[in-house]
Amino acid sequence: MRQLLALTGSDLLQRMRDKSVLLFALVVPLALMSVFNLVFGQADDIEIKPLTVAVSVAAGDDLAQVLVGVVRSLDDAGGLDVTVTEVDEAGARQHVEDGDAAIALLVPDGFAQAARAGEPVTVEAVRGDEAGIEADIVLSVVDGVLDQIASGAVTAQAALAEGVAAADLDALVEQATGGGPAYDLTSGEASDEQLGAGAALVAGQAGLFLLFTVSFGVTGLLVDRESGTLARLRSMPIPAWVVVASKALVSFLLGVVSTGILLGVGAYLFDADFGSVPAVVALVLCAAAAGTSVMFLIVRVARTSEQAGIATSIVALVLGIGGGAFFPVSATGPLSRVLDLNPVAALLRGLGTTSGGGGLGDVGVPVAIMLGFVAVMLVVSRLVPDRGVMS
Amino acid sequence: MRNALTVAGTELRLFLRDRSNLFFVFVFPLLLVLMIGLQFGEGASTGRVAVSGTASDLRSGLVERLEGDDVVVSDPAWEDALALLARGRLDAAVRVDDAAASAYDAGRGLTLEVVRGSSGNAQVVEQQVRVAVDALRSDRGRLLALEGAGVPPDRAAAAVEAAEGQVVAPRLEVTSVDRLSQEFEGMGQFEFGASGQLLLFTFLACLGGSATLIQARRLGVVSRMLAGPMTARELVAGQILGRWAIALFQGGYLMLATSLVFGVDWGSLPLALLVLLLFSLVAAGAAILLGTLLENEGAAGGAGVGFGLVLAALGGSMFPLELFPDTMRAISRITPHAWAYEALADIQRRGAGLVDILPQLGVLAVMALLLATVGGWSLRRSLARAM
Fold first, then answer.
1. Complex prediction ipTM
2. A330–B177 C-beta distance less than 8 A
């Protein structure tokens, strides 16, 4: 135990003196977090804003008035604040150009007649600078109304073909569009287990650079072999496993400390809240263990510290990007399940749960994924032929 | 000059011999272009909806309607759908339970549960679900109306189908007069990723090479070279040319590979190459400066990756400059990446000519001259120390 602590202590001291550890563990990730926060911070801020729609419709067009009525009825529905201004076509375009309206809806003359007859007719919508997500909602509603109007025309046409009297058509269309069975939608609430924009940046960079940081400990074995230190250590009465364990311990400690600092400093600087401290500590410990376990495989395969460095960078970037360190990966289905098995993804998932109010008992799945990852890496590293440091 | 070219050629050979480059130069940038294209490119912002429930006419009708509206539909179990929603991997989830499916088959009213996620786009996607459900209801409503008017059910369905072939639905045509849409107009799915990664990796490859300069000084290679018939000026020129060659190689490869693999249109090739030439020279100057200011290869590697990523993020290589807040857009102009990004965007999307991109080229040329001069001066100082 004394030997283990002595080796670990001396290695930790050496790593602290090495500027590259500090660069990769703290300086670069903090710099990236700051830049990303400045660049992406505001872009993620999507909120529903009040919206003015300028419409131009012919006065006597009843179907166009129905369309306008539906848009008007969106005011106060689903959090929307919609104001409808009726003007002529040129005025509507002008309103959008001047920024007085987010969208202009231009319904052509003779719209009702063409739509009822099933003849081609186009409603033009002009989006302006102020048009955001609320404009997309309005346009989706307008699209739905146009579908309904088309459905009415289909009903009328089918009824005529089947010999229904022309005088009964209006009532039939009314019944088809307004009557029929009621299809209701009840809205449920989704729980939120996602990190906010700032917290996601902090957690993503912490997860990515954890993999670089843990590499400094274990790949130190290869450096020691190249410098002859390993041979000297092995000539002494120190069991081989103690040497290996000390490197792993260095990796693990560097990983825990750097990730802890990054999450703490990041949370303070970028106003992120990761929630329950014990749960976050458990996640960080497991993530550092998972990162360290990959290094065991790398030192077994890599012949030189240079090869190990290359392999580490590749593994860190692939796992980091695949895990959502830079942007959330929106894959679904089997691919998302594979991506979920990655320790960076598991760390981000766990931190999402804790930031959403989850405690130690709620991070079981990500913890299990990371510990499973450790077990798999340790088994695989025992199974692959050793052509690396201890061969 | 021959000596300088020999040094440059050796630098390029050393770069290509480095096995890590097989991945980082040739494969990794293309993977990122692919991922960014899939994530942010054209058509990537469509909604993601889960329609859960056992197979039924109602479920398949809803899926068909949503897919017709370009929504990506999946079919996880309800609990899984809620978990995916909570993690932001879905915009909305709809539960089609057995009661609703049987009510649909029987032509009765029904209730569907819809849960909206927290993504910015979720409210729009929920509205798309409402439109799809309304359309299904209307399909059923018109059949019932026809049957109510005395048309037998089988004939009603056939008549509706025939009428659908004759009726042309009114169309909604959306045009944009907003600045952003116009700036992005003409950009294909992979164009942003390709130009962003071109600038990121060209600069990164060059900065990464600064460690070899430190190694050469530490191992005495530089002193030995200067012991031969080579002047310090030739060595400096060779080092700058070498970095320039590395950057041009990386950039040229990415331009070629992205146009072949992803069909990226680089616009006027001579102009795009001119941007690459000047941008690479800026990168070469920066790499020489970094390699002479630092004494440790590990630190140079870390600083190279750090600077490379930070400058790229600031310069719009990871997130479109057009979407930057105004202050950040102004700050981005300290990076060569931002100027090169704007020039490439003008060439690719707006068919700009030489005159249109002269301001960007001018700034890049000044940056290149400044960094190459300071880098060269710093290298000569370090050579004096080495001698």
1. 0.72
2. no
